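Sequence in, structure out.
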Amino acid sequence: MGAVVCSISIIWAGFKMMFQHARFGDIANVFIGGLFVGCATVIAAMLIPTS
């Protein structure tokens, strides 16, 4: 699920920048939020000890 959300946010950001001439500041909230959702399992694995 996280990979899907991350992919969609990157595709959306790229579309806005390419075709609607948006600046990164205009799309940063959605882009960064999508990256956090996509990387949530990796971040959790780093924070929770496994031993």
